[in-house]
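User: Structure please.
Assistant: Input sequence and predicted structure:
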Amino acid sequence: MTQRASPPLPWKTRLYIALLSAVTDGVRRSDGTINRCLLSFFDARSSASAKPRRGVRTADVSVDPSRDLWFRLFVPSSASSGRIPVIVYFHGGGFAYLSPASRAYDAFCRRICREINALVVSVNYRLAPEHRYPAPYEDAVDVLRFLNDGGLASADATAAGLADLSRCFLAGDSAGGNMVHHVARRWAADAPGGWKNLRLAGMVLIQPFFGGEERTSRRCGWRGRRWCRWSGRTGCGGCSCRRGRAGTTRRRTCSGRGLMASWRRRCRRRWWSWGASTHFRTGSGGTTRG
């Protein structure tokens, strides 16, 4: 099968990917937990600003302090008196890293808010491995309920006056894209009578982070690829399942941690020669189980 040509990655992007991979490896302990204190030295953050910066003002709104559930609200300063759509954004990071305060996501959501002229609600959900599945999905749904029940009016009356909850969009990248899918399903399950004000008008999934316990037909075509260690067993494509003699399993690491490690190995081996589109077209392997 002939592979399609992929555009080369800019050197800044390649450098960023290499540094990101090194940091995520460095802060992960051998038992799978994450050294949050060490990570804080590398995760540059931006604080909320009531004074507009680049045409957008921001505020951190608490939803449930007991579990540190909050969101960063982005409001365009150029918004007219009319209603504007609401974009609920879920950041990426493999369900384990980053937050709405991370500088990259603060700048990204600020740009969306300014260029689209929409309110952006960037959710700070609980992270793995401290909080297991389905904690991120539950946090995301609770933020939607907070908006549906009028919580924004008490937090920021001006923003509440601009928000058109009948035009609410879910958006996210990587793990956040995974959350968009599952949160939308949960919203739809309760839609007949559970949502009075908030209506989902659409979804935006940016390179969503999906995985499964059964190989798909496309993954079966990975046999022989240098980055794929094939075990001959039904399991997660690309993970390191090793077989012992007489077909017995000697060690199996099909956990979320094993998949993340496999994903990072593939990035390091192939990213420099592949383009971004080819890498994400072949899939990045993952799990929704924190």
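Residues 56-206 form a domain with the Rossmann fold fold (CATH 3.40.50.1820).
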